[in-house]
Design brief:
There is one protein chain. The protein is built from nine helices and nine strands. The chain is of the alpha/beta class. Helix 7 links the parallel strand 6 and strand 7. Helix 1 runs parallel beside helix 4, helix 3 packs across helix 4 and helix 7 packs parallel to helix 8. The longest helix has 17 residues. The termini are far apart.
């Protein structure tokens, strides 16, 4: 079992980049009445406490969401609803953001293999439209594809603790697009000094949009930026990226 725990990093600038874009995309995909399917390969616990010892130990939320005032955007809507239900220190992970912004006709399938994270996720997102699966994310999403409704979005967001996971993500995406060609795939990756994310980019033999931002963390270590790839991006996705980037300034920079 891998050791990564996102509670130490929730709400940091990379989360802000990913979640701003995710919320904008979900809003774009739900403009019409037709339902969509939303899936995640690595869902995490779904709900985080920015006042927890883990969060306070790293202080990363102070450099991300706590340093920004969000107004009139989908992520602000999701966070406001989350904090109304769970307290002012609550931060919604991607599963809770999706559940908050999606509708009765939409369906969510969330994969999480870590026992403790799975248990917390199941408690956080109890809802008739949401299915939580304790299984390998890549296997689970492929097994359930294509789902109903056929229009949808898949978030691929591993920890990349294993170096070969960059290539694995590219391979998975190819397999998924064969099984579920209607899907939009959103892949997040960290930008680190070793630049291993380029293995992922080189492995994608598909049309995609790439969006990267940089940021300065106080300790000067670890990530220097955050990257997203959109495969089979819907019409209007470029505007979602630009809008998310503008909302994240001055924390996020191109």
């Amino acid at each position: 079992m891998l050791s990564y725990q996102h509670a130490y990093h929730a709400g940091n600038p990379a989360d802000l980049h990913k979640h701003l874009v995710l919320a904008e995309l979900l809003t774009l995909l739900t403009r019409k009445p037709r339902g969509i399917s939303y899936m995640e390969t690595h869902a995490g616990r779904g709900l985080y406490d920015l006042g927890s010892p883990e969060s306070l130990k790293t202080g990363e939320a102070a450099e991300g969401i706590n340093a920004l005032t969000l107004r009139d955007c989908p992520l602000q809507t999701a966070l406001a609803k989350t904090r109304a239900g769970f307290g002012e220190a609550a931060y919604a992970g991607s599963p809770l953001i999706a559940q908050t912004l999606l509708r009765e006709q939409d369906r969510l399938h969330l994969m999480e293999l870590h026992p403790a994270e799975f248990g917390a996720l199941r408690r956080a997102v109890r809802n008739e439209t949401t299915a939580v699966h304790k299984r390998d994310g890549y296997e689970g999403v492929l097994s359930l594809s294509p789902p109903k409704p056929r229009k949808g979005l898949v978030l691929v967001d591993p920890s990349y603790e294993i170096k070969t996971e960059y290539e694995q993500v590219a391979e998975f995406t190819h397999k998924l697009m064969i099984k579920w060609p209607e899907a939009t795939v959103m892949i997040w990756y960290p930008i680190l000094p070793a630049n291993r994310h380029e293995d992922l980019i080189k492995g994608l033999k598909l049309n995609f949009i790439r969006h990267e931002v940089s940021f300065d963390l106080k300790d000067g270590e670890g990530m220097t930026g955050s990257g997203l790839v959109l495969v089979n991006a819907p019409y209007g996705a470029d505007k979602c990226l630009k809008q998310a980037e503008s909302l994240g300034k001055p924390i996020l920079r191109r």
